[in-house]
Fold this sequence. Notes:
The chain is an all-alpha fold. The protein has helices spanning 5-24, 28-33, 45-55, 73-78, 87-111, 131-139, 142-150, 154-169, 173-187, 194-208, 215-240, 246-257, 268-273, 277-301, 306-320, 326-335, 349-373, 378-411.
Amino acid sequence: MAIDRRKAGLFGAAIAVRLLLFTAFPSLPDLLTGRVEISTPVTSFKRLQEGLFLYTRNVSPYDGGVYHQAPLLLPLFALLPKPTTFPIATSLLYIFVDLLSAQALMQIAESEESRSSRFFTSTRKDLKWDSIAIGAAFLFNPFTIATCIGRPTSVFTNCAILYAIARAVSGKGLSSLFAIAFASYLSLYPILLFPPIALTFYDREARRSKSPPNAYGFGISNVVFLFMAIGILLYMSYLITGGSWEFIASTYGVQLLLPDLTPNVGLWWYFFIEMFDSFREFFLGVFWLHLGGYVGGLTFRIRKQPLFVITSLLGVFAIFKPYPSISDTSLYFALLPLYRHIFPLMRYTFLAVSTLLYATLLGPAFYYLWIYAGSGNANFFYAITLVWSLGLSVILADSIFAVLRDEWEVERPEMKGKEVRQI
Length: 423
């Protein structure tokens, strides 16, 4: 089998950079693990270690209310040496997951689904980056590298999501469904990606065969398989935890009800700190409805490009999910270069990039002023997270505008290049 030298060089360079950071700066992983921009209550490596300590001593890892992650992660990390004595094993695991994510991303790029789908082919489809460039943008993204060094468990969710998309654009429906079921088992929110992912491999099946599959039968069978896969994972977790279902409340209940208000780069924590308890349930419902409400609207409006719906939803999750981190942002930015052909149609790129750079540089400074220097308060850090969310929102809205403009120019070629004004 021929070896792709460019891919081998890319992966080799990515491994070298990560190993250099892990070995040359041995205190860096612990430093990044404690950063609120990287670790959240539901992805923290430190909390995973506390849960693992209890698990290896035959005590429920959910005693004490610290560990809020999936039970199946415990036997995986129990097989590895302790990070304090032999950290390279854990480092190699996270590097390997990054490479798997990059491989899945390059498969998505090679499918050309972003430029030519079942119902739509962009007139700008020749304006593109190849799969190696897209993989390099992901592997050498500072957010991706910082996430790998910080070792949150969100990297496993991101890898499962990318694998689900890669299998979907290849028409491998069952493996795609199992991957999205595993991602949903780990982090709950990826289940919202099921409709556009199902549409993606439905369109692939329709393009492959002369007649498309029956839509109702296809949808029902995939929903049944998805919940069967999730049920199997939950039952395995039940067996691992010694025949107890308490992990459901400690993992998914925490994300749904938000009892842990540890600061993060999201919008929820400060709002619910200031919230009166009598209104808490109402606004929890409103926030979750807001997060889930984009699924139907984007899937229906951009039906011709389900892969872009997935990309946009990942951007929505990076802004509006309960416990976001820069890991979610790195996943969104990993898929955005697939749409190189719409970049000329985006209007506020400079504003959005400047805003994100501003928030990236000042976020740690404001957190330091609040927590360590004592010369600020929570408003300092929350203000910069609002700026961060604003930058992501501008990119998200601008990319959606560009895709809709691209579709409109295909429908009305005489309008290509002309200015559009909203009345």
